[in-house]
Amino acid sequence: xxxxxxxxxxxxxxxxxxxxxxxxxxxxxxxxxAPTFVVFLExxxxxxxxxxxxxxxxxELKKITKKQWxxxxxxxxxxxxxxxxxxxxxxxxxxxxxxxxxxxxQKFQPIFxxxxxxxILRERFPAKFYLYALLALVGGYFVTFKDPSSINxxxxxxxxxxxxxxxxxxxxxSTTFGKYSLKNINYGLLAAxxxxxxxxxxxxxxxxxxxxxxxxxxxxxRTLAIIVxxxxxxxxxxxxxxxxxxxxxxxxxxxxxxxxxAVIFDYVFNHNVLSTTQIAGAVLLFIAVTLATRxxxxxxxxxxxxxxxxxxxxxxxxxxxxxxxxxxxxxxxLYSCKVDLNGEFYSGLMYHxxxxxxxxxxxxxxxxxxxxxxxxxxxxxxxxxxxxxxxxFKSVEKLSEQIKKDLSQSFSE
Length: 413
Fold this sequence. Notes:
The chain is of the alpha+beta class. It is built from 15 helices and six strands.
């Protein structure tokens, strides 16, 4: 398990480093080509490289549900097409002088990803999250402007910040849907589908640039080829490979290698230096995003199943009761989780909060597709996603309805 996490984290870090090299060394060479056409060409070349995965894993295409197809299309539209176009436009607007700023603003990705999850999945987060999001905005403001006291809101700097944040939203949402899309398909197949859909999406807006193909220089084609084998198709393959093996919260931390390395590369090779104000803003941005991400971090609970009152039978979901003291660091609420029973792994729901039937705080786990006796057994529960705040229900019927809703939301396709 540890080796799996280590390898997955390493893959995400390598992908992040490749993205840094893209902004510092590669994308500046493409400034003679329209951003939309740049993105279309790099994804077309990337699709050629990833095409074999469509044939190798074609049997898995049948496993993809309608919701997954929608998620993959979202990943292609926002992560592949719009996100990359916004990022490229932001870099072009800076004249590749403030590359570090564009990259640093990408740290808003987890903020957008968490907010999107809250909207789509109807999740709620502690008030602290919104405080951290506000602090991140303040940090982003100071990162953007070297002199915050003198700002021209119609300037290229402001437009650069707008496109950077649009890229952060696009890529942040793409991470959320990408993780969902990986549920039962190969990471290589997802990368190929992402690039394929992106090419289709960009075909119409790119048509008007087809006549300029003969004038595209050899240097541009060479740079595009390098992008495909580094920050493009290869980096995306590595990223999905790592994302499949590690929790999203850990992936977010590993992605910090991107802004850190970009700032260093920008200083060493381009001699671009952040102002004192920008450095302070970057520190505030990193702290705020890290604290916000930790609110949705992974928790591991190890304990022995206790004998309960069989209240779960009354609401249609048998639960394994654990010692409430094991949850002293676990925020109250409902979580989707993985349960380890002597090396056998099951999906489940873990609830920490008030029990509507006993009016007492409880820690209990519903193990999906398990019908045996758990009393006295040692189990390990690892949280995956925070679903909602705890609720108190006035009747068994209302509680039963909520449990059915929770199960449907968490495990339905």
